[in-house]
Amino acid sequence: MKKRIMLVALLSLLVLGFAFANGSKETQKPIKIAVVGPLTGDFAEYGQGFKNAVELHAKQINAAGGIFDGRQIEIVDFDDKNSGEEAASIAERIAGNKDIVGVVGHFASGVSMAAAPTYEEVGVPEISPSASHPDYSGMGEYIFRNNSLINVEANETLNIASDVFKAKRVAVLAVKTDWGVKTADILINTLAKDHPELEIVGYEEILDGLTDFSSTITKLRSYKPDTIIVCAMYNILGPFANQYRDIDSKINLIGFSNAYSEQLIKLAQEDGNGIALPAIFFHESPEAKVRSFVDDYMKDYAGKIPSSLTAQAYDSLGMFVQAINEAKSADRKAIKDQLYKINYDGVAGVTYFDATGDAFKTFNWLMIKDGKFTMIDKSKL
Fold first, then answer.
1. Is residue 367 included in any domain, yes or no?
2. Domain that holds residue 179
3. For 20, which of 26, 102, 159, 231 is 20 to 30 Å away at the CA?
C-alpha cells in the first residue's frame, strides 16, 4: 500500500514538473511583432527605415529587460514591395501565425488599405507609421495610424505658403497615386476656401518616376504662380526643384513630410535651399530622447539620419510594448483595447488615439538652408 501511495505521489510530481516546465517554456517564448514595408524597389528607403527603427527599438527594449514578464521582443520582417496584392498576401500569412501579436506597417495608404481587411477580420492590431488616407483607420477597430490625416498635413502646407512665403498665387503638382491625387483634391477643393489670402491658380498631375518635367513646368509657369505645393515624395520633389529653378530661381516650393529625407537634399543639391515642408519629427531637436534616438540610429545604420516616418515607426513599436505592459497581456485583443487608452511620449512627440484609431500630432515647419534641414521659428513670422 505504501509503495502504491509513493508511486502515485511520484507520478503526480512528474506531471506537475512537466506542466511547470511546459508553462515555463511558454513564458519564455518571445513576443513577435511584424514590420512590413517596401524593403526592395523604388520606395525601399521608407521600408528599410521602418525595419531599422523597429529593430533598434526592440534591441533597446530587450536590453532593458524586455516586457513586463521578462520576455523578449522578436521582430519578423516582410517585404510587401509597396504592392497591394503582395500586402494582402502577407497579411494572410501574418494573420495565420498566432505568435505574431501586432504589425508595424504598411507604408503607402493604398497598400495599407489592401492589408487592413484581413487584420481586422482575424483581429491583428496594425499601426501604420505613414498611412494618411482619411478612410484608412475607419476600416476597423484593429486599424491604427501613427501619422496625421491628409487634411491636417495638407492644411499645414497652406499655412506655410501663407505665413512663411506670403504667397498669393499657388499652383499644385501631384503625383498620380491614390495619396497624391487625394491630397491635391483636399487641398484645392476643401482646404483652400479657408485661406482666402491664397489663390489656387493651377493644378497638374505627373506619373510617379517621371524624370523629365519640361512639359509640366511649361504648363505650371503658364499659371504664373509664386509658390508650388508638391504632393509627392523626395524622388519627385528633388529633380523637379532642379529643373524648375533652372528656369525660375525665385519659385517657392513646399513639400510634405514624406519628402523629409537626406535624399531630397542630395537630389535637389543647391536648388533644394528654400524648400519648406511640415514634419512631426525633427532630427536636430535638442530634446534628450530625440538626441539619443538619432545618435543610436546613426551609430547602428552607417550614419543615416532618421526621417519623420522612421521616427514614427520607432514609436509605433514603443506603443505596442507600452500597451502590452499596461494590459499585462500579449493577447491580440487585449493589446488592441489598450492602444485606445495609451498616452505615449515618444521621439515624435506625445501620441494618443481617438475612437477611430487616428493619432493627433503637432507639426514642425522645416526649411532647407545651406544644404541642411532647419526648423522655422513660427514665433518670428
1. no
2. 151-279
3. 102
